[in-house]
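Postdoc handover notes: sequence design on the structure in folder B. Input tokens:
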């Protein structure tokens, strides 16, 4: 639970910003960075960044709920490990449509994780 002035979430089809008084909606999340700007520990305007990989966001009356299976705070991201994981995915063999689709999805998430990790530093 955090009070926020503004939240930016990675939807499956692009980034979306949510401010106070935003119209209600439900969206499917992609892989990327959630950025929360607002009050944190009494510091107005503080920024909190977290990498997520898929899930859903629900925006209601003055409330945003994010449901995801994978969430990593920005301070725990490791660019070298993310880069290594992406390189391993690029050379991993895939046979069949389902395996190729799964690998492409994994590569997309790995690239998003690497971008978030590089932004940290």
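Designed sequence:
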């Amino acid at each position: 639970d955090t009070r926020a002035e503004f939240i930016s979430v990675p939807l499956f089809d692009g980034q979306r910003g949510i401010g106070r008084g935003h119209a209600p909606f439900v969206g499917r999340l992609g892989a990327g960075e959630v950025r929360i700007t607002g009050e944190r520990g009494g510091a107005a305007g503080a920024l909190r960044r977290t990498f997520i990989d898929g899930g859903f966001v629900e925006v209601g009356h003055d409330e945003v709920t994010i449901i995801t299976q994978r969430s990593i705070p920005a301070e725990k991201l490791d660019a070298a490990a993310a880069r290594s994981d992406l390189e391993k995915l690029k050379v991993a063999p895939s046979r069949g449509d389902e395996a190729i689709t799964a690998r492409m999805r994994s590569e997309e998430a790995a690239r998003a994780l690497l971008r978030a990790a590089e932004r940290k530093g």
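Context for whoever picks this up: The helical segments are 79-91, 97-120. Don't rerun without checking with the PI first.
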